[in-house]
Inverse folding.
């Protein structure tokens, strides 16, 4: 592993750990009814911490089809992205009943997206691009639910502005992942593995610690 990649993993686990401590402190001050936002935010960063820590020890990768695949990214994402979506959905409806079906569809499409992305990363050309397209289709389903039916639920609730802000932030960050994947070592390889790992680091920290901070800020103001 190059020292640039190694450094990105070290910064990754430290950032996630600090994020976890910060969320714990903020969560203590949340009203009882809002603590679930704290639980979501902490779970996300502590799962990411474990995966970044594994990668920094050299335990999160495997050598397959002639290149290194950092599978720990996917074991991180497959757990944390559903929780991020649940965290967003908690602002769309406070009674689980109303959003249960949407939430199940959202989580199913999201897991499908991550798993097919991993299969693509383990594939050689041109199969990797087929899997990218399949994963993209699932991603569009996720975005369709977030901006369609789930948003309409949020419109009927009390936390519409928080929902809009978080949905916007989530979309802006998440669309970068398939781009990095495509230009990086899993796709056409026009950027180095070091640049790729730094891009994922910035995205992961913003999509987890940044998103969580905004979500907890909104939870503090929520009724
Ligand atoms: C992959 C494979 C290629 C196609 C698509 C992908 C989408 C990944 C996303 C990941 C989001 C990760 C987050 C992590 C941490 O907070 C799997 C790269 C569509 C959207 C938000």
């Amino acid at each position: 592993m190059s020292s640039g990649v190694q450094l990105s993993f070290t910064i990754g686990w430290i950032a996630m750990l600090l994020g976890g401590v910060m969320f714990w402190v903020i969560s203590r001050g949340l009203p009882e009814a809002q603590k679930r936002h704290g639980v979501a935010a902490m779970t996300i960063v502590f799962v990411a911490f474990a995966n970044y820590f594994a990668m920094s020890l050299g335990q999160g990768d495997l050598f397959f089809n002639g290149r290194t695949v950092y599978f720990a990214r996917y074991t991180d994402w497959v757990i944390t992205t559903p929780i991020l979506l649940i965290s967003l959905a908690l602002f769309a409806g406070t009674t689980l009943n109303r959003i249960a079906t949407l939430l199940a569809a959202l989580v199913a499409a999201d897991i499908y997206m991550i798993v097919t992305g991993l299969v693509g990363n383990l594939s050689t050309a041109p199969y990797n691009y087929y899997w990218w397209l399949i994963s993209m289709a699932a991603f569009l389903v996720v975005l369709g639910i977030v901006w369609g039916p789930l948003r309409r639920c949020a419109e009927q609730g009390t936390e519409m502005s928080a929902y809009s802000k978080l949905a916007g932030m989530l979309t802006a960050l998440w669309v970068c992942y398939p781009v990095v994947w495509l230009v990086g070592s899993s796709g056409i390889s026009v950027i180095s593995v070091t640049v790729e790992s730094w891009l994922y680091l910035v995205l992961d920290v913003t999509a987890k610690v940044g998103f969580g901070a905004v979500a907890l800020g909104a939870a503090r103001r929520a009724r």
